[in-house]
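Write out the 3D structure for:
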Amino acid sequence: MVRNQLLIASAFALFMIPGSVAPARADSCQPVFDALTKLITTPSHSYTTSRPVGGKARTAETIMTQGKKYIRANGKWMDTRVTTAEVLAQERENEKNGKATCHLLRSEAVSGEAAVVYSFNRQTTGFKEDSQIWISNSTGVPLREEQDADWGEKIGKAHNSAHFEYGNVQPPM
């Protein structure tokens, strides 16, 4: 049960971070927030490998298209019954009320595409993330993310590696 919770939490981590804490918003995070908005509002397919501390690596996929969010866990696609509008509303809430800091680190290509790399640290109620995120220079969408996440004692900590694709994204069902 805890493994399934961790896998589902990992699939949701990039798109549906719960709750919020004391207000703080760094202007240096605007490019990251803009990229996350584009990720949510552009048809996308993400591939994530989650390595829980002391546990076995798991893979998951997320598709967001046509206003819906789907995840693939344990080899099976599921409609999350969460709309992209709800994901975007949660992201806006986290931007407004969460505590985040960002720093531009460097320029670096991802699969031949020019990108900038930001460090992104965010804390909301019940969740902390420490990430590096690669954002496309030409489109402004995230291309890759390396994330250390902490969901607290119930689910625990994990390292998540994700890459994102945007071409020809279709619902899985």
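The domain at 2-165 is CATH 2.50.20 (outer membrane lipoprotein receptor (LolB), chain A).
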